[in-house]
Amino acid sequence: MAFRARHLLGIEHLAPLEITTVLDLADRYVEMSRRTVKQSDVLAGMTQINMFFESSTRTQASFELAGKRLGADVMNMSMQSSSVKKGETLIDTAMTLNAMHPDLLVVRHPSSGAVNLLASKVNCAVLNAGDGRHEHPTQALLDALTIRRAKGRIQRLTVAICGDIAHSRVARSNLILLNKMENRIRLIAPPTLMPAGVDAFGCELFDDMREGLKGCDVVMMLRLQKERMDGGFIPSEREYYHRYGLDAEKLSHAAEDAIVMHPGPMNRGVEIDGDLADDINRSVIQDQVEMGVAVRMACMDLLARNLRAERGRRIVGTMV
Q1: Number of C-alpha atoms within 13 angstroms, CB side, residue 205?
Q2: Which of 87, 181, 185, 309 is the most exposed place for a label (fewest CB within 10 A)?
Q3: Residue 272 forms beta bridges with which residues?
Q4: What are the φ and ψ backbone dihedral angles of 35, each rounded to 5 degrees?
Q5: DSSP letters along 272-310, please?
Q6: pLDDT tens per residue, the chain (320 residues)?
Q7: Measured distance CA(293)–CA(295) in Å, rounded
Q8: Which among 104, 97, 100 is positioned nearest to 74, based on CA atoms?
Q9: pTM value surpassing 0.90
């Protein structure tokens, strides 16, 4: 098997062959999820705990559904009323959970690196569901699967990532993945929403939407991360939409068969025109939601296989 990771903490440590392995297995889970009977016993007898320190609708529901379709016992922890709010440290929380012997731990946290810290303290497999501005690996993988199914490949494409790049872990994970798969990447944003050190990313940089979209195969819009902004990054939402919101006129500068993406939730009329977001001929936004469940099923399946193999080796080692 070409996927040997113990945890899924980011795209950075995955090889291109491992990315392809996830996408190939996820393709099979797409078909399974479209059947009348969607259940499998791949994770039967295993326990999955979802810990979301930040609010989430799509990602948490997607992970929960993925675990249940694979036969896991799934528990959602309400971190808003957890012991962390009473002063318990993240490490103490990890040790408490570890004593319950979970198999899969899905974590979203507002601090970059928090998920890596948790992974170093537990004996189970950990999946990063988004940590601060660091990474959101399953979002990048589901975006890759969406692109591959729409375009027939995930290599040698011109991809524009547009909007609030500075605050976006989705942009970071997609940048890493798309670079690994040998794509041409353009970043389009006002200077205030470009991250520091962006020149080292190996991307083409634009602050003009129409110029940046010329000939693009994929147009990936990003949400304005208002909760991470502590200053005047944009003059107004109206002005932002005028210059950087995607509409039919701006999209006309991209390739004729370009697809439109957005990780959600969308701010219609700010980041993207509502009619364009719903255009079944150009938008693959709903496909992204469907691919999310399949990709998360694939990731948990692969990590569970590695976990079982590791535990098997440990048992054999104690018998020798």
Answers
A1: 15
A2: 87
A3: 246, 268
A4: -80, 165
A5: B-HHHHT-TTTB-HHHHHHHHHHHHHHHHHHHHHHHHHH
A6: 689 999 999 999 999 999 999 999 999 999 999 999 999 999 999 999 999 988 888 999 999 999 999 999 999 987 665 556 667 888 888 888 899 999 999 999 999 999 999 999 999 999 999 999 999 999 999 999 999 999 999 999 999 999 999 999 999 999 999 999 999 999 999 999 998 888 888 899 999 999 999 999 999 999 997 665 555 677 788 999 999 999 999 999 999 999 999 999 999 999 999 999 999 999 999 999 999 999 999 999 999 999 999 888 877 766 65
A7: 6
A8: 104
A9: yes
**What's 80's DSSP letter?**
G
In whole angstroms, give the CA distance from residue 92 to residue 97. Answer: 9
Token pair recorded at residue 303: 């990590």
- The owner of tokens 């440590």 is 13
Measured at the alpha carbon of residue 11, what is the angle toward residues 219 and 61, in degrees to the nearest 5?
75
* Residue 250 and residue 227 in contact, taking contact as beta carbons nearer than 8 Å: no
Tokens of residue 223, six digits: 């949400």
What is residue 230's three-state secondary structure? coil
In angstroms, rounded to a whole number, what is the distance separating the alpha carbons of residues 247 and 202? 27
Q: What share of the chain is helix, strand, coil (3-state, %, to 5)?
A: 45, 15, 40
Count other C-beta atoms under 10 Å from residue 113's C-beta. Answer: 13
Q: Specify the DSSP class assigned to residue 195.
A: P
Q: Tell me phi and psi for residue 52, to 5 degrees.
A: -115, 105
| Cα angle, residue 167 at apex, residues 143 and 79 outer, rounded to 5° | 85
